[in-house]
Each structure stands twice: as structure tokens, then as C-alpha cells.
Amino acid sequence: MSSNRWGIAVAGVLVQVALGAVYAWSVFRTPLVKEFGWTISEVTLTFTISIFMLGVSSFVGGLWLSRTGPRIVAMTGGALYGAGVLLASFSDHRLWWLYLSYGVIGGIGLGFSYIVPVSVLVKWFPDRRGLITGIAVGGFGAGALVTAPVATRLIQTIGVLPTFAWLGAAFLIVTVAGGLFMRNPPEGWRPAGWTPNASEVAQRAAHDYTLREALGTRQWWALWLILFLNTSAGISIISQEAPLFQELAALGAAAAAGMVGIASIGNALGRVFWAWVSDSITRKVAFVLMFVLQVVLFWILPSLASVGLLTLIAFVILMCYGGGFGTMPALAADYFGSKNVGSIYGLMLTAWGFASVFGPLLIAHMRQASGSYRGALHVIAGVMLVSIVLPLIMSPPRRAGADEPIPVPGRNDRRAA
Predict the structure, then answer these.
(1) CATH architecture, range 4-179
(2) Would you call 3 helix, strand, or coil by DSSP?
(3) What is the CATH number of domain 211-393?
(4) Which of 102, 83, 130 minimizes the C-alpha distance to 43?
(5) pLDDT tens-place string over residues 208-265
(6) Spatial separation of the C-alpha atoms in residues 18 and 44, rounded to whole Å
């Protein structure tokens, strides 16, 4: 039984890679603008709709999988996502159809499918919660690295709309097939020979919270705010990478695009790295370190002109951005138990949607108002400085008179006075 969990993990990662192709939307922007005369803002709105629907439907998918199990949710999500991308191939001079197909239908499918591997794998890997969720969502971060060059070549060869059809068909096959492997372990299952150590016991809730119970704790709202703040910082850079590099290093568009590609690898790598580190140093300390790093990096970023240093700093900032998504599912499972983590973390992902609006608008508005990025980057550094307080003061929620520490087999059952 335990060996099967690695097969489930591989399937989950493949599903996330297919879903993460949404981050490659920028390769469709220029071809769609040129072919149909739509504006950049009109085409970009497709991506915004898709990410917004992802956040909403992740919560709905989390509630659904707690009632029916993960397989049907994953397969339905995969079918909707693949169909949405495929149907986008019929958007010839119909912008509303692009919004409906890729944005709404595909976005709903994204949310349903995204939450399933996260929810399933934290149950199968209680001994490696951070690492396994980091690997899973790392697949999502790496999706654009796989899809962007493939989509670009297809667009050059067969055109932009047929590319949607081919990619949609491929995504449908991968996500539905991967969804077939999604299942929860038996009730009470643990890996052979594993028991939580004292540090893990101290950082984990003593029972599985329902969504209603979780929302009644200050910890859930603190985690939501941490995810919102960390995401706002990183996505502000993502939204302005190319023009930021061009302004600070006096680069051309092609050179700036190359720097964007290198820095984006940090998004995928950070999801695995920080989640893996959090298994050893605790999730709280991992978030403290991510915030401290960003305070320093955002503060010094506007004073740099070296292409190499700018790329390195952007790479590390995006590692912290991805690290939030890699570490938070495990932290939510630590604090509220793994049984209902699908709905509890699914609702927490609304922080992603709000941050996707707040971060880019903040940096764009301040850049326009001041004529440079310096003020905006220093404001973000200040926000990160204040954010350090949140993980420092957090501890797992405890129900008064109901919680007991998780028993650790082989240890004395003595309680501290």
C-alpha cells in the first residue's frame, strides 16, 4: 500500500504540470492581438478571468472532494480544463468566446484539479508534508517552462487557434488520466515505521478541523493574510519584470525577456526548496526567512544596474513567491489536520486572487505616479518587514477543553504541569 503513494505523487505532479501551462498565457498575447486586432488589455483579461475562476473553484472543489472523494473532482476538473482550452480554438473574432472557454470553463477546471493533488498528497505523506506539497505545486510552477516553447513552435507552424485545439486535447488526456490515480489513503493510515517527533507534535493540531471550525480560529485568517502578503510581493514583480529590467539595466526587450525566463525558474524551484526546508526548520521559520529575504532584496533592487545581480535577485524573490504556495498547504494541514484540508486550503487560495489584483495595481500605480520603480519597491520592502510578525506570533489552534497533544507511540504519556 505505501509504495503506491509514490505513483499517486507522480500522477499528481503530471496533472499540475499540465495545469501550470496557464502561466504560459503570455505567448498567446501578441499572436491574438495581431490576428484579431484585440487590444493587449482585452487579451490579458482572459488570463485574469482564468486565475480568478481558479481561486473560486478551488474552494468549491475542496468542498466537493470532501463529500465524493478526489477522483471524480480531479477528472471533472481535467475535462473542463482541457475542453476550455480546446474550445478556445473557436474564438475567431469572438472575444467573448475566448473569455467563456479559456477563462471561465478552463478556469473552473483549473481550480477543481489544482486542489486535488494538494489535498490527497498531504494525507499520503504525513512524514514529508512540506516536500511533497512543494513537489506537487512545483509542477504547476514548471508548467509554463514546458508549455511556452511548445506553444510558441506550434503557433509559428499551424497558427494560434489550432494551437489551442492541440494543447487542449493534450491537457485533457493528461489531467483526466492523472485524475484516475487520485484517491485518499485508508482512514488512520500511516507510513510504516513513522511516528511524529516532538517538534512535529508541537506544530500540529490535535484533531481534524472542519471548515467551519477553522474559520472560527484566528490562525486561519493569519494564514490567509500571510499567503496574501507573500503573493502580493512576488506577483508585483512578475507583472512588471520585463519593463522593470529594461528600466533598471537599460536593456532591450529581447534581453529583458531572457532575464524573465531565467528568473521564472525560481518560481518552480522555490516551491520545492522552501517546502522541503520547512520539514526541517518548521513552516513558521520558513516564512520568517522568506519575508526577511524579501525585505532586503526589495530594498536594494532599485539601486542595481547589473544584469547578473538583477536576474539573481528576481530569481530569489520568485523563489519566495513560489515558496509560499509550496509551504502553505502543509502548514494548513499542520494547523487544521489533513482530513478537510481540501476545503480549508481551497478557501485560503482566495488570497491568491486578491493578491493578483492588489500587487500589480500597487506597483503599476506607484510607477506611473512617481516615474520610477524605487518608491514602489521600497514600499513592498516595508510591507514585508511588517509581515515578519505574523509567522512569529502564530501557534497551532487548540480547542479549549477538547484538544490533547497527539500521542507519540513509544514515549511516556506524561503531561507537563
Answers:
(1) Up-down Bundle (1.20)
(2) coil
(3) 1.20.1250.20
(4) 102
(5) 899 999 999 999 999 999 999 999 999 888 877 777 888 888 777 667 767 777 887 8
(6) 20
